[in-house]
């Protein structure tokens, strides 16, 4: 009800952008080594300058913040437009060149492609896609950090061997273990699942007698819903996302419409590689910001 007022929705969005601008500033200061000889942020390293959360959360939030800065720059004028555009560029560089969250890389690419379709006509979309490919290639070639992360991912995929328990030091290998064992759990309980909160026990039973590490989630939100509450639960989640997408298209504000669609793309992308809604910050981010944006839907009388 609070966010049914347009001004309150703006305040909520400004609050999020302000929080991310502060995070961005602190991340650059950590990267520059400003806090190395101070009691502040002693556990944060210039090689991976995340601030308040782990690098996965930082990458997802900062990727969406870059998108949000860019959208506001598009619909602003004067000096504030250039300030927001600079913030979008700095946030993008923060995700791609400074931190280690690979999910953030994919979020940035997915949002960039959506931005082309949202803001450009069909004649310019192909040109925009070409520019994204060119920029991605240049960024990859110019960034040893991205190259090392991508090379490591490819190496971990090639070295992965199922059920041998030697994938603990491999982020991708661990995920592959999670996915294959979760699919086995789903195959045994496809319709109703193992029950809400039942994944950890079911997974422990699945890997019993092996040296595979236990887990309380499969690092994929879609698989987690299917494993715990069956195909009905998975369909319900997909229907929730589809309903939110259709509702966002009805928002009277073009800014809110694009932001709501961008938020859904961010969440869907993150859920493919993480049990995103199981994490407090990411779950709250989705519920709060989607509620804020969709509060702008016209009432039945207005419709």
Written description of the protein model:
The chain is mainly α. It has a domain of 159 residues. Helices cover 70% and strands 0% of the residues. It contains 11 helices and no strands. It is globular. The model has no long low-confidence stretch (mean pLDDT 87).
Strands, count: 0
Question: Uncertain runs with pLDDT below 50, 5 residues or more?
Answer: none
Structural class by helix and strand composition: mainly alpha
Tally of alpha and pi helices: 11
Question: In angstroms, what separates the terminal alpha carbons?
Answer: 18 Å
Radius of gyration: 21 Å
Mean pLDDT: 87
Question: Helicity range of the residues?
Answer: 55-70%
The sequence of SSEs as H and E is HHHHHHHHHHH
Sheet of most strands: none
Q: Hey, roughly how much beta strand do the residues contain? A: under 5%
Shape: globular
For the structure shown, list the relevant keywords.
70% helix; single chain; mainly alpha; 303 residues
Please specify the SSE layout and strand pairing.
Blueprint: H1 6-31, H2 55-74, H3 78-98, H4 102-119, H5 122-142, H6 144-159, H7 171-188, H8 199-206, H9 221-248, H10 254-273, H11 280-294
Question: Quick summary of this structure?
Answer:
With 303 residues, the protein is mainly alpha-helical. Helix content is 70%, strand content 0%. α1 packs across α3 (78-98).
């Amino acid at each position: 009800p609070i966010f049914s007022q347009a001004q309150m929705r703006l305040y909520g969005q400004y609050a999020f952008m302000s929080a991310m601008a502060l995070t961005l500033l602190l991340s650059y200061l950590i990267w520059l080594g400003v806090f190395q000889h101070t009691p502040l942020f002693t556990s944060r390293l210039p090689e991976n300058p995340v601030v308040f959360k782990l690098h996965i959360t930082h990458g997802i939030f900062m990727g969406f913040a870059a998108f949000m800065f860019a959208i506001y720059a598009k619909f602003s004028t004067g000096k504030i437009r250039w300030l927001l555009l600079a913030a979008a560029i700095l946030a993008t560089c923060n995700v791609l060149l400074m931190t280690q969250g690979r999910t953030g890389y994919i979020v940035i690419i997915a949002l960039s492609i959506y931005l082309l379709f949202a803001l450009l006509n069909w004649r310019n979309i192909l040109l925009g896609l070409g520019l994204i490919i060119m920029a991605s290639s240049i960024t990859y070639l110019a960034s040893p950090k991205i190259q090392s992360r991508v090379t490591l991912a490819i190496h971990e995929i090639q070295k992965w061997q199922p059920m041998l328990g030697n994938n603990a030091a491999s982020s991708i290998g661990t995920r592959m273990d999670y996915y294959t064992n979760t699919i086995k759990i789903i195959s045994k309980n496809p319709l109703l699942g193992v029950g809400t909160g039942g994944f950890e026990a079911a997974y422990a039973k699945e890997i019993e007698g092996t040296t595979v590490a236990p887990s309380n989630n499969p690092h994929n939100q879609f698989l987690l819903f299917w494993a715990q509450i069956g195909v009905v639960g998975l369909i319900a989640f997909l229907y929730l996302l589809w309903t939110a997408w259709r509702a966002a298209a009805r928002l009277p504000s073009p800014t809110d419409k694009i932001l709501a669609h961008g938020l859904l793309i961010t969440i869907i992308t993150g859920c493919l590689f993480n049990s995103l809604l199981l994490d407090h910050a990411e779950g709250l981010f989705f519920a709060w910001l989607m509620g804020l944006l969709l509060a702008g839907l016209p009432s039945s009388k207005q419709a």
